[in-house]
Design brief:
The protein has 19 helices and 31 strands. It is α/β, with parallel strands linked by helices. In the N-terminal section; belongs to the methyltransferase superfamily. tRNA (mnm(5)s(2)U34)-methyltransferase family.
């Protein structure tokens, strides 16, 4: 899906400290008492104070996030009226305000302690002004915000979460007619159930008729302040809910006990084990080597930065979410020196004309905000890096590097994790309530949840799991202090990547060699690394290494360069109900996907594992424990393990 560049909100302040939109010539909130209007229009007419008292979880969807005041007030009522459970607040905003403007608006309510606490959490987690989905966990298991930055009519069809109450806000229909369309009301009905309510400040006739036509019972009431009337109501009749993609529905398996087996002791396996342990599971990690982090996770350093594409596609959105999730995990560990690394900046050089064109297209089409990335010429980057560079590029202020093995070891320190090394899994069989795992060593393990999170599976196991994993060899070259002029101030990428861990340890890499499966270091690969590095950093290497020094790893890649994360579909069910059937039927005619109970995969992270394994671990944790997903449906579908077979079938290819 193509996403349009986000236009910054054009605003000004009136003398009475009211925020006004120049685009719509309308105020963001009432001048007659913002909180009082919110309470009257949205809280009372959706019966939220009463409904919150008996709700376990609740979902509100809003058109027009604006200054965030509707969210703050709803969150305050939720926390004050509901002792447990999660409020999921979904909002769509085409012209996001800068975080500084939000803070200025919220400051007017500084006498409200609860409101200010929620505001502070929102401001600290407020996303970059980039198009697409952004999920914010403000209070774990209590308060979650999902923001869509872009056109609501483009984002709403992607959403699949049932909504309990709608806030129809945004600017008045006469000044913002593009939003108040019949398609908006149709999507509202699709996501509503029999108890779903709505409220809106407007009594516009087209809005009233559109809501009725979509299936809502619409009532009028006296408006707030200068507004004469307002609308509110409820879905008149619940329609049968048909998932947009039945082949990607979530599994409904509930494990018989909170125990799990994780195959793989690298980044994917360790982060998955840690997340499950945090959720209360007793986890056993099975690693075929004598030590953990012996494959791609064994590199001395890996870089952390987003993926820039010209159209900000699903890959960019996935890795942005992964980038932010990784930072959230690592921040305190780095602060407490529990892992090795630095997240204080990274430089991405545009080392080819194609790379520079892609970045320029992204700057033009997407509009990268300065707090996310800044474009600099080669002279500016050279000064910042303390080394001469030959190319222009981007500086990511939150980017950096970490040592993967230190992260693996930190994760596996959890008291609920048991590590078993020199254990190679050869097969697995479901037995009534649990998986029985066979190993080359003759030892057997069992648990109701089994997760394969290793790149080093045999072809037969990959085929059994339905994974089109392709290993791609990469060689990293290590340098000693006397090979280097001066250490790099920041890590940088340049077709490869270069990092100075300290004054004595430096590296560059990594090659992409497929289908070469040789496990020995080669002079040819080392020469390639030197050439790539010297073309970007002509003065950094003052003496080439005279011996082979480095590391070889095989990155597990997928055909579309996104990881494969989630439940493993039942192959027989897939063949019978999808692959052997016509692909042209309307979606609701196909049954929901069926899965092998308790069987999951976490693979295919390729060269970007540091930007995806932490998000993958959270996703698996949510799936296994039947919790709401902390990422939008579109990104879940984009990483679903069955997607390749489904795509081939839906495009008319024969896959069975």
């Amino acid at each position: 899906m193509k996403l349009d560049v986000l236009q910054p909100a054009q605003i000004h302040w009136r003398e009475n400290h009211t925020l006004v939109s120049d685009t719509f010539d309308d105020v963001y909130y009432s001048t007659d008492g913002a909180i009082a209007e919110i309470d009257y229009v949205f809280m009372q007419h959706n019966q939220l104070p009463e409904r919150f008292k008996t709700a376990k979880d609740f979902c509100i969807a809003e058109t027009g996030f604006g200054s965030g005041l509707n969210f703050l007030r709803a969150a305050q009522l939720w926390l004050e009226n509901t002792p447990a459970g999660e409020l999921h607040f979904i909002s769509f905003e085409k012209y996001p305000l800068e975080v500084e403007i939000l803070a200025q608006v919220h400051q007017a309510f500084s006498d409200n302690t609860t409101l200010q606490t929620i505001s502070q959490a929102l401001l600290e987690n407020y996303p970059f002004r980039l198009p697409g989905w952004h999920t914010l966990i403000l209070i774990p298991s209590r308060l979650k915000v999902t923001l869509w930055f872009g056109d609501v009519l483009q984002g709403l069809p992607e959403f699949e979460t049932p909504v309990d109450a709608w806030f129809l806000d945004g600017f008045t229909p006469s000044r913002n007619p593009d939003m108040w369309q019949a398609s908006l009301f149709t999507q509202m009905a699709r996501l509503s159930h029999a108890q779903t309510t709505f409220a809106t400040f407007t009594a516009n006739g087209e809005v009233r008729r559109g809501l009725k036509a979509a299936g809502f019972c619409v009532q009028k009431d006296v408006g707030y302040g200068v507004k004469r009337e307002m609308l509110f109501g409820q879905l008149a009749q619940q329609r049968p809910f048909a998932p947009k993609f039945p082949w990607f529905v979530r599994p409904d398996f509930v494990p018989s006990a909170q125990t799990a087996l994780v195959v793989g002791g690298g980044l994917a396996g360790a982060t998955t084990a840690f997340q499950l342990a945090q959720l209360g599971f007793e986890v056993t990690v099975l690693e075929r080597h004598a030590q953990v982090a012996q494959e791609a996770s064994g590199n001395l350093a890996g870089t952390l930065h987003p993926l820039i594409t010209s159209d900000w596609n699903l890959r960019s959105q996935w890795y942005l979410k992964g980038y932010q999730t990784t930072q959230a995990w690592l921040k305190n560990w780095l602060k407490n020196a529990e892992i090795i690394g630095k997240l204080d900046g990274l430089i991405q050089l545009a080392a080819t004309p194609t790379a520079e064109q892609r970045i320029q297209d992204s700057l033009r089409r997407v509009g990268l905000p300065n707090n996310f990335a800044t474009w600099q010429n080669a002279n500016q980057l050279s000064e910042q890096l303390g080394q001469t560079v030959n190319f222009n590029g981007l500086f990511f202020p939150q980017g950096g590097w970490v040592q993967p093995s230190s992260v693996v070891k930190r994760c596996l320190q959890h008291p609920k994790i048991t590590l078993k090394t020199q254990i190679e899994v050869t097969d697995f069989v479901w037995q009534d309530t649990h998986w029985q795992v066979q190993t080359a060593q003759g030892t057997q393990f069992s648990a109701p949840v089994l997760i394969f999170a290793t790149a080093s599976l045999s072809n037969s196991l990959n085929q059994k799991l339905g994974l089109p994993v392709r290993p791609v060899k990469g060689q990293v070259t290590h340098f000693h202090a006397d090979n280097i002029k001066t250490p790099l101030r920041f890590p940088l990428t340049h077709g490869g990547y270069s990092v100075s861990l300290d004054a004595h340890t430096h590296l560059s890499g990594a090659t992409f060699e497929a289908p070469n499966m040789d496990t020995k270091l080669s002079w040819e690969a080392q020469a390639e690394n030197l050439s790539t590095t010297q073309s970007a950093l002509p003065e950094w290497i003052n003496r080439a290494p005279t011996e082979l020094s480095g590391n070889i790893a095989f990155r597990p890649t997928s055909p579309d360069h996104l990881p494969m994360i989630g439940p493993v579909a039942d192959a027989d069910f897939m063949k019978q109900n999808y692959l052997s059937q016509s692909h042209t039927h309307v979606v609701y005619r196909y049954p929901k996907q069926q899965y092998y109970p308790g069987l999951y995969v976490n693979n295919g992270h390729g060269a970007r594992g540091l930007m995806s394994v932490f998000l993958a671990a959270e996703l698996l944790g949510d799936l296994i424990t039947q919790q709401p997903l902390n990422l939008p449906s579109a990104l879940y579908y984009a990483s679903h393990p069955a997607r390749f077979a489904i795509r081939a079938w839906r495009s008319g290819q024969i896959t069975d």
